């Protein structure tokens, strides 16, 4: 029965969507949408979707050869799992009628009920509400995929799928609601998160830290990337997709999108250069891997600030984030915590740096403008999000482990996850 449960659950969700879902509600006579904004958001949504396959290449190139396929699939499978979950209940939990500012009512948009082609003024007046929901879906997809780098090479695939579902329901959706819903707790506090520095990267990084601690160290802690060209390709796809990630969060083809576009590129470029020059400063070679990690750290750090800061501030954010994350990664390598692909030092620390510097540099409301309210609220929010995500994620790892043992056996880890979890492998490895 246990081998059939996954299929039966999927069948149940399919039937729920079939009978509970409603036809798309077309525009009323005389009702219009902004076609330019809609076109841009369609493109942005596609850009963000591309980031998850990009992440698969980025992570896949950094592990050992015997676990490349499994690592890449852990990212890729999120496209399927989260897409279905989002339609059934995820979107409603994130953007449904607010329950105390903490989470949305799961019944509000259950099975995409009421998610129509008409704009919803509460979220965007210019684009179809369905498009807004699909754009947000792409953020929900990549967040659990980011976590996988922390426990790469030692987790059972089925267990990971279960954890991904639980994390999306109990951690991601509440954070998205609190941060982006008009009545969300953090939104009401005045917390600024333009495109997901807190919701996506901080949450993923902190959940990754909890996962690395819970699952423990690999039997063989090998730091030898299998395929650097994969890492470079993944970085390029992520950088490209990030323009949709950040600029798309303006929810239209407007000046905020242009600002976010420019800031995104400059922060990443500065962070990449800072990383490789820092390597040289530390008497190490300028590495391709370092350049790629630096670029990603810059993208992470600018995400919460993308639409709120100047060009000079974005360059500064990329510079600072690169130095701080570089230091954090070096500490991680010396610690007993085996965060395989440095998810917490990159995404967690990068997101924290971005969140703090947003409160410092945001135009008109930042600390440098003499305003203290935003900074104080960001510090409070940082603590709340960190505690909520770490404790909640650790509990979900424990629950998952009880239901489906998470860690592979020692012999399976030695064989590699490609063979032990999927019966597949790279030819050159055998």
Characterization of this structure:
The model has no long low-confidence stretch (mean pLDDT 94). The chain has a single domain (17-24, 41-429), classed as Ammonium transporter fold (Orthogonal Bundle), CATH 1.10.3430.10. 54% of the residues are buried. It has helices at residues 5-20, 35-60, 68-76, 78-95, 129-147, 157-180, 185-189, 197-215, 228-247, 255-281, 288-302, 311-334, 343-361, 373-403, 410-415, 417-422, and strands spanning 98-99, 103-104. Strands 1-2 form a two-stranded antiparallel sheet. By secondary structure, the protein is mostly helical.
Query: What is the number of E strands?
Result: 2
Range of strand content: under 5%
* Biggest β-sheet strands, sense, barrel: 2 strands, antiparallel
Number of helices: 16
Query: What is the radius of gyration?
Result: 21 Å
| CATH architectural arrangement | Orthogonal Bundle
Global structural class? mainly alpha
Order of helices and strands: HHHHEEHHHHHHHHHHHH
Quote the CATH topology: Ammonium transporter fold
Net shape: globular
Average of per-residue pLDDT values: 94
Distance between the termini: 34 Å
Briefly, what CATH class?
A: Mainly Alpha
Q: In which range does the helix fraction lie?
A: 55-70%
Summarize the structure.
With 430 residues, this protein is mostly helical. The protein has one domain (17-24, 41-429): Ammonium transporter fold.
Task: Give a quick set of tags describing it.
two-stranded antiparallel ribbon, mainly alpha, 430 residues, Ammonium transporter fold
Mind sketching the topology for me?
Elements: H1 5-20, H2 35-60, H3 68-76, H4 78-95, E1 98-99, E2 103-104, H5 129-147, H6 157-180, H7 185-189, H8 197-215, H9 228-247, H10 255-281, H11 288-302, H12 311-334, H13 343-361, H14 373-403, H15 410-415, H16 417-422
Antiparallel strand pairs: 1-2
């Amino acid at each position: 029965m246990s081998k059939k449960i996954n299929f039966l659950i999927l069948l149940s969700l399919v039937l729920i969507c079939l009978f509970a879902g409603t036809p798309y509600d077309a525009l009323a006579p005389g009702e219009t949408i902004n076609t330019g904004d809609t076109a841009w958001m369609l493109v942005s949504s596609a850009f963000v979707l591309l980031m998850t396959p990009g992440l698969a290449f980025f992570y896949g190139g950094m592990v050992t050869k015997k676990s490349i396929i499994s690592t890449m699939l852990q990212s890729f499978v999120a496209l399927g799992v989260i897409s279905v979950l989002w339609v059934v209940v995820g979107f409603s939990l994130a953007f449904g009628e607010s329950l105390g500012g903490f989470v949305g009512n799961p019944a509000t948009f259950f099975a995409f009920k009421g998610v129509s082609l008409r704009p919803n003024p509460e979220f965007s007046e210019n684009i179809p509400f369905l498009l807004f929901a699909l754009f947000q879906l792409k953020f929900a997809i990549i967040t659990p995929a980011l976590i996988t780098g922390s426990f790469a090479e030692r987790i059972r695939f089925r267990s990971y799928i279960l954890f991904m579902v639980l994390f999306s329901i109990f951690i991601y959706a509440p954070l998205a609601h609190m941060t982006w819903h008009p009545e969300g707790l953090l939104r009401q506090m005045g917390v600024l998160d333009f495109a997901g520095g807190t919701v996506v990267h901080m949450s993923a990084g902190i959940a990754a830290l909890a996962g690395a601690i819970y699952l423990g160290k690999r039997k063989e802690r090998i730091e030898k990337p299998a395929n650097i060209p994969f890492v470079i390709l993944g970085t390029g796809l992520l950088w490209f997709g990030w323009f949709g990630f950040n600029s798309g969060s303006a929810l239209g083809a407007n000046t905020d999108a242009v600002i976010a576009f420019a800031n995104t590129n400059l922060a990443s470029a500065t962070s990449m250069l800072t990383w490789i020059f820092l390597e040289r400063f530390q008497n190490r070679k300028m590495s391709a891997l370092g350049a790629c990690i630096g670029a990603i750290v810059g993208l992470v750090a600018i995400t919460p600030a993308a639409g709120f800061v100047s060009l000079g501030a974005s360059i500064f954010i990329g510079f600072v984030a690169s130095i701080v994350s570089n230091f954090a990664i070096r500490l991680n390598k010396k610690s007993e915590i085996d965060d395989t692909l440095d998810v917490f030092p990159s995404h967690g620390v990068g997101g924290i740096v971005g969140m703090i510097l947003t409160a410092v540099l945001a135009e008109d409301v930042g600390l440098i403008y003499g305003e203290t309210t935003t900074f104080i609220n960001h510090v409070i929010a940082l603590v709340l999000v960190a505690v909520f995500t770490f404790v909640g994620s650790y509990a979900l790892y424990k629950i998952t482990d009880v239901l489906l043992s998470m860690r592979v056996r020692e012999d399976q880890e030695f064989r590699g996850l490609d063979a032990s979890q999927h019966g597949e492998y790279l030819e050159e490895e055998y």
